[in-house]
Structures are given as C-alpha cells and as structure tokens.
Amino acid sequence: MQKEGQIRIPAGCAISSIFSRSGKRIDGSKIVKSIEIMHDRSNGLGGGFAGYGIYPEYKNAYAFHVFYETPEAKNACEDFLDHHFDIINLSKIPIRKNPRITNEPLIWRYFVNPFPTKLADSQLDEQEYVFRSVVRVNDQMPGAYIFSCGKNMGVFKACGYPEDVGDFYRLEEYEGYSWTAHGRYPTNTPGWWGGAHPFGLLDKTIVHNGEISSYDANRRFIEMYGYRCNLLTDTEVITYIVDYLVRKQGLTLTEMANVIAAPFWSTISRKPQAEKERLTFLRNAFSSLLITGPFSILLGFEGGLLALNDRLKLRSMVVGEKDDMVYIASEESAIRVVEPYVEKVWSPRGGEPVIVTLDKSVNV
Amino acid sequence: MSVDFFYPEYEIVRDQNRCISCRVCERQCANCVHAFDEASGKMYADDSKCVNCHRCVSLCPTRALKIVKSGNTFKTNSNWTNDYMKEIYRQANSGGVLLSSMGNPADFPVYWDKILINASQVTNPSIDPLREPMETRTFLGKKPAKIERDCDGNIITKMEPNLELALPVLFGGMSYGAISYNAHASLAQAAKSCGTFYNTGEGGLHKDFYQYGTNTIVQVASGRFGVYKDYLNAGAAIEIKIGQGAKPGIGGHLPGLKIVGDISQTRMIPQGTDAISPAPHHDIYSIEDLHQLVYSLKEATDYQKPIIVKIAAVHNVAAIASGVARSGADIIAIDGFRGGTGAAPTRIRDNVGIPIELALASVDQRLRDEGIRGNISVICGGSIRNSTDVVKAIALGADAVYIATAALLAMGCHLCRSCHTGNCNWGIATQKPELVKRLNPEIATQRLINLLNAWEHEITEIMGGMGINSIEALRGNRLMLRGIGLTEKELEILGIKHAGE
Ligand code: SF4
Ligand code: SF4
Fold first, then answer.
1. Domain segments of chain B as ranges
2. Is A293 on the interface with B (CB under 8 A)?
3. What pLDDT is stored for residue B136 in this prediction?
4. How far apart are CA B365 and CA B325, in angstroms?
5. Tell me, what's the pLDDT at B103?
6. How many A from CA of B407 to the centre of ligand 2?
7. pLDDT by residue (tens digit) across B146-186?
8. Contacting residues for A298 by C-beta, under 8 A, at least 6 apart
9. Domain-by-domain residue ranges, chain A?
10. How crowded is the C-beta side of A325, counted as CA atoms within 13 Å?
11. What phi-psi label fits residue B12: left (phi over 0), alpha (psi between -120 and 50 degrees) or beta?
12. Does residue A198 have a cis peptide bond before it, meaning omega lies within 30 degrees of 0?
C-alpha cells in the first residue's frame, strides 16, 4: 500500500472551530466535543486539532511538534536543530494510551529560536529561515516530520477518529483562544500520521473539507516558488498558496480570498470601476491559484481565523456567534453541542471570506 | 517519357444514370478535369488532373459524382512505397525540390489521440454548465512578479499589456496572399464577433482590415513584408515569426503568381515577384538579437502591445523557449510539425520538427522548473483538430491554442493539399477573382463563429465533468490527463500518468 505522498488520496471531512475574540482561554475538551458530534463525517483514518495561545510561557519561541519513525531519525533531526536553532526546551508530547490509537510514532516538542548569527548569515528573514529549515527536515530526513512550527500554537494529529485523537493528546490540558479541528474521511488507508490534518506552516494551519479539481494546476504553479507538495493533499497545496499570497506577496486575507475563490467575471463586471480593476487584476495576476471544486477551509493564524467556501459553495459551512465567541463548523450541530444558546447563525456565501480576529486590546 | 506517367491516385466515378449533363462540375473545377462531349452528349473526366478537393462532388445536383482511391499500385513494398517511388521519378524528371501544402500527413503518432480526460465521480461533484457559470476568459501576457501598492495601500492594478480572449482559441497566422481577401475578411470578422484574435501572417495587413485592429495580431517575419509603423500599431499584438511547424528552419514562400494587385501593394513588393522570406531574420543571429527586436517593436508601439514570438517545435524547443521567455517577449507561440502551410518543401514538411504535444509539455515544464512560467504565456498550434485537443493542450500547460487548418476547414477547405497551385476551388488559397468570389465572407464568418461556439459548448461541458468551472484551473492540470498505449518515456515527457494509475 502506498502512503500519503506516493499517491493522491481524495477525502471527505468534517471541520470545526471555536474562537474567542476577547482572548479567553478555552480548554481543548470543548473543540473535541464539537468535532465528535460529526463522527459520521470521518472514518477513523485521520483526525487533528490546532490550538492558538496554548504556549504563553514560550510565546516568543517557535514550537516544533515532530513525528519520528525511528530513533535514528530523531538523532539526525536533533542534530540538525542543534546546529541551526537555540533549543530552549524539549520534551516528549504527553499522551494518554487509547485503544483506538495505535502505531504511534515518537512524538516530540521543541521550543526553538534561530541562532542569530546563522540567521544573519542566511540573509533570510526569520520566518523564511524557519520555513526553509522545516522543509529541509521534512524533505530530506526520512522518518522525521515536523508537523507544527508556529509560535504560541500547536498542531495535534493522528490516525483515528478526532475524539480519540483529542483524548490521546490530552487536549483538555491545553488552553487557547482559538481551536480548529478536523475529522477525515479518506477513500484509502494512508496509515501515516503526517497525512492527517491540520496542515501547518509557521503560524498558519489549515483544515479543509473537499476535493479540489484545480489541484495539479495549483500545485505546478506554487512549486515554482520553492514549495514542494510532497503529501499530494489539497490541504498542503492550499496552505502553500495562502503562505505565498499572504506572507510572500503581502496580500491581505480578503485579497487572498479574492484570488483563490475569485468572484465570477459576471459578478466582477457589475462592480464599481476601481473594484472591478482590483478584482480583474488579482484574477489575472494569480490565475493559476484559483481553486475550483468543493472546499470549505478554516485557516488559523496568530490572532485570527478565516473561513472560506469555494465559489459555488459546494460544501456546507455554518457560522454561529454568541457574545465574544465565534463558532464555525461543517454542521450546525457541532456548534449547538458546545453552545446551545448560540445567537446568530448563518451560512456564508460561496467565495465570501469570514475573518475573525482578537479584539484590539487583547494581548495573548 | 513514359516513366514519368503516373496513373491517377484518385478516380472520378460518375454514375451515368444520374448525370444530367448540367455541366456544373465543368464550371466548378478550376483544374479543368470535367468536359462535355457534344457528340455523345456526355460528361467526361480527366482523373489525372484531379486533386480530390470535392468541389464538384459537393455541387453536383444529382449526386452523380464521387472520388475514390484508384487502387492502381506498384508492386507492394514497405520500404519503397508508392509515394517514395513517384517522388524519385518526379525529381529525376524536374531536378527540383518537391513541394507540398497543408500539414504533415505522414503516419507519425498523434499524441492527442493517446491521451484521455478525467471526470468527477462521488468525491467531487461534476458541475452542470447549463446551471452554473462556466468561465473560459483568458488573458495572455506577462503577469506581475510582485504586488505593488500606492501610498494608500491600494494595489496598483496597472500591468504589462495583456490580450483578453473570451475563449482560449485564436486563429493562427495565414497571410493575405497565401489565402484570399474573402478568407481574411471572414477570419477578421469572426475573431471580432467571438472576442478573440486572428493573425495576419507575414503578408501585411490590407487597408480594409485596419478596422478589425483590436482583434488582429500583426506578424513580423523575416521577409518584413508590409511592415511599417502604422501596421505595427494597427494590431492588438505583434508576432515575430521565427519559424513555422510545417517548415522549421526555412522562411515563407509565396509564388509570384499569387502576388497580384492588392497583395503586391499590401506586401509592398512588385507584382509577380516571388515573395521569399529568408530562412533566418537577418537581424537575429542569437538570443540577444531577439531581445533587441522585441524591444524595438515595443518602442515602436509605445509598450502598448504584447509581443509574441512564434517558433517551430524542434528538438531543443524547451531551451529555446526559455531563451525566448527571457528575451522580453510576452507570449510564445509554438507550432508543431503537423502545422499547415501554403507551400513547403515536402521533405522538410514531413521530416523536420516534433509533435506539438511533446514540445508543449516540455516547454511548460521547463519554464516552471526555471520559475519563469509567469513571465510568458504559451500558445500552441499545429494541429489542434477539435475541442478535446484544446482541453488536452490546456491541461498540458498551454494558455491558449492557435487554429488555422481547422478554421480553413470551417470555411470549406477539403484538405486537398494543393494550396501551392493557386487553384483552390473553395476560394480560400487562391487569388483568382473568379475563385475568390466563391467564398462568401458572410457565410464563412458565420461558420467560423459556429465552430468556436460549438467548441466552447464542448469545452465547458468537459470542464464541468471534471468539476472545473474556470479554464485557469484546467491550465497545466496534468492530473486530469492519462496516457493510453504510451511508453514510460513518452509519459515522462508529457508529465502524465498512464490510464489506470
Ligand atoms: S479537382 Fe476538385 S472539382 Fe475538380 S474534379 Fe477533382 S474533386 Fe472535382
Ligand atoms: S485551402 Fe483550398 S487548395 Fe488548400 S487544401 Fe484547402 S481546399 Fe485545397
């Protein structure tokens, strides 16, 4: 059987997220409860979570979460990290045995900062330095896989149903202002933990439901800019597209959404002149990054969350609000189970991004 | 000498029971095949002059005529085929270069026919083009490498000039001279009506057609026929023709008998002189020179027009394309070895160049490997025969395609491959007024429009089947293609998997 990255595996899914605008710290059990209700949308072959604001004590360091298949892989990777980063802390990620989660790799966590001299020598900015280091490990060190590498955030994922994955990682022990979750329904057995979602790159994580029909057009374009789509998953390519447009091209999140879920030409033609020019420019300049086919994605980032549907809205996605809390999920049930008194509930239109951020005064 | 006698390849079969001796065939055949015999009151035909253009067949009111392969053959030999033998006799007689027209007809693989297209099932819904918008709008030209903003933080939307197409299909270059005034008029009007472009070829632009400038690509070839400032500024884009798929490495040839009247004026050469374009551009002996010509043309047109560089698909086409992409050109057009021509040396047409499918795949991949695919758009041509060829070309990586032979067929061409004789019975590849007037520009325009509309329907239906609702998501989407009956190497070059993988 080929594993993720050797073969492209389509998957259906469930996604959910919880966000506190006021920066309230919510423990992980709530997001587990939310995704659990959509059990039937997953098939036990992948589940995962991303939490933001979970490492306040190390908030200025990059938190690397790493899977190792062998002790040799661990030695090689740690040797590499030792040479390029100042390792402030390292430990195994605490787990709890769960009968439905098996074959676990070694799972380690490192809080690191680039060595200032190495960073200066590289002539890269800090994020690019971290990005390239992570790509180097994932690309070139067999058996080692850094699956989370942002600041004050972390990804937790495994093969299994999401509620079991949450239990395994003892998520109730973490507290954060933002959580996303994913339950996967792949049409094949990947059997590899790295293939589960969220997919993370620096502070950005993506969970996604859908199967994009533009995959290879997107992949072959984004690979021109130093990205390697080794996993062959939609989530991976979407993450790279977002990173390229937002971090490298400096687009705002809305502009990014205007590229990947661009309005139809007929819609653009009805806009006022300046807006028409802006949208036409974005569609033309980044035409190869238009994503077609069904998708709903949740993009977590430092201080915020973005939800986006494909432009035809071929996947369900519901938003609910109560007080400072925002809930977004594939199904309304996943919101009501954690917030029975949710106030505003609506379905965003296709291609229309929903962006929530921490209130200005909040410092996490 | 009797050795030069060839039994006609095609034979005219006339059903005497149906023939009413109306003499339509006689009037319609510019090759003077048919004749009426007063004595017997019957029609006769001299098969040896027939080029199998089907003009008489189509116009015979009683369906009395058909053309069949005569079946006369030399002793069968897989090595010394009939054609090779006849060519020897012909050359032994004339001492000349063999001439042919239209594209390479030889039995080389057609990769389009060995590629299959994907469709969605279950995991990803197909999209119904009758219910949902399907977008085929395409822009050709450079894309910005970096976003810039004004002092208020707004994106500066000005970019290098691009061509906007409603459908990624353009009419390829065919010169006024090689084809008739009416044929040009039809192409120009159809391009305008369909929101696409036609291409003047290398013969200049007739004064009457300046009005279609916004839908015209003006060509600059090595002969520089008809090139001057107004011409350059008349079109929406300028194409530097380096080469042509039917005859890579040599220039265009238009026999003096086609240089008459307006054509000599439009080309700016004396009547009756052969229009022979030099093999290379004599100001382009290297890639730096191309860069200079690209920028001279940009200067001459105030940086308002995208510059296309058209090359023939030859062995190292990927490296050449990479050079072109760095020359400042906005668009590269690659013409495959099946591409048509008004006249080409047979040996060259049938043996030089490579299939467009392989050339396109390797060019697109090379430009991506070098990270410069965004610097340049890619048009491919030679030969695109139907809407699935278009879909496959775009999925392999083309931004758009050129069609030329297909456009001629739409206007009535029957691929008799005798354009070089100047006797086109369909009024297309001829300059004889009595033949030219057979092509009604209004009807031909409508037929071209119909063809593009039909293809658009088919393309959007196929896209919908794949779950794609905008053409840009198809471009370079090679996962949507599978090869059938291809070797590992062929699959590797095409960058696609085998069916069943
Ligand atoms: S050349 Fe054309 S018109 Fe003349 S006999 Fe042959 S098929 Fe008929
Ligand atoms: S254009 Fe005319 S002469 Fe040329 S192949 Fe077509 S029908 Fe024959």
1. 10-96, 116-498
2. yes
3. 97
4. 13
5. 87
6. 12
7. 999 999 999 999 999 999 999 999 999 999 999 999 999 99
8. A15, A17, A180, A206, A207, A208, A305, A306, A307, A328
9. 14-54+152-209+302-357
10. 21
11. beta
12. yes
Mean pLDDT for chain B overall: 94
| B271 contact partners, CB below 8 Å, separation of at least 6 | B259, B260, B261, B264
Segments in B65-212 forming alpha helices (H) = 82-94, 181-194
pLDDT of residue A189: 47
Which strand ranges, in their side-by-side order, compose the sheet holding A204-210? A199-201, A204-210, A295-301, A304-309, A354-357
CATH of domain B10-96: 3.30.70.20
The percentage of residues in chain A with a pLDDT greater than 90, rounded to a whole number, is 76
Q: Which amino acid is at A93?
A: I
Mean pLDDT over the full length of chain A: 91
The pTM (predicted TM-score) of the whole model is 0.92
Ligand nearest B8 Cα, by number? Answer: 1
Among B10, B44, B57, which residue has the most ligand 1 atoms within 8 Å of its CB, making it the best to mutate? B57
What CATH number does the domain located at B116-498 have? 3.20.20.70
pLDDT value for A13:
78
- B418 within ligand 2 shell (Cβ under 6 A): yes
Name the fold adopted by A14-54+152-209+302-357: Glutamine Phosphoribosylpyrophosphate, subunit 1, domain 1 (3.60.20)
- Report CA Rg, chain B: 24
Whether pLDDT at B120 is above 50: yes
Output DSSP code: residue B179: B
Ligand 2 contact via B494 beta carbon (within 6 Å): no
| The residue to which tokens 């695109």 are assigned | B384
